[in-house]
Amino acid sequence: MEVKIGVQYAPRELVIESSQSPAEVEKSVTEAIANEGTLSLVDEKGRRVIIPVSKLAYVEIAEATRGTVGFSAR
After folding, report:
1. Domain edges within the chain
2. Contact between 50 and 43 (Cβ < 8 Å)
3. Partners of 49 in the β-ladder
4. For residue range 16-37, what is the model confidence (pLDDT) as tens digits?
5. Cβ neighbour number for residue 34 with a 10 Å cutoff
6. Is the CB of residue 25 less than 8 Å from the CB of residue 3?
7. Which of 18, 19, 23, 35 matches a 20 to 30 Å C-alpha distance to 63?
8. Model's pTM, two decimal places?
9. Which CATH number is 2-62's, of 2.30.30, 2.130.10, 2.30.29, 3.40.1350?
10. Low-confidence ranges of the chain (pLDDT < 50)
């Protein structure tokens, strides 16, 4: 699953490939905003991204799209 995070005053968004479900990511974001703390997410390689909630601009949660390779006949 792909998570895009907009951070205030950052020219580019953060893109994280996560193995968490959309519901789990949404719960993490909602809890972080409610507690006014930090948002912490782990990507598929085990790297942790921590963002202060005060700097969040937006969070977009989407299923990862897999590109097709080669030719196909329909």
Report:
1. 2-62
2. no
3. 41
4. 998 888 899 999 999 999 998 8
5. 9
6. yes
7. 35
8. 0.75
9. 2.30.30
10. none
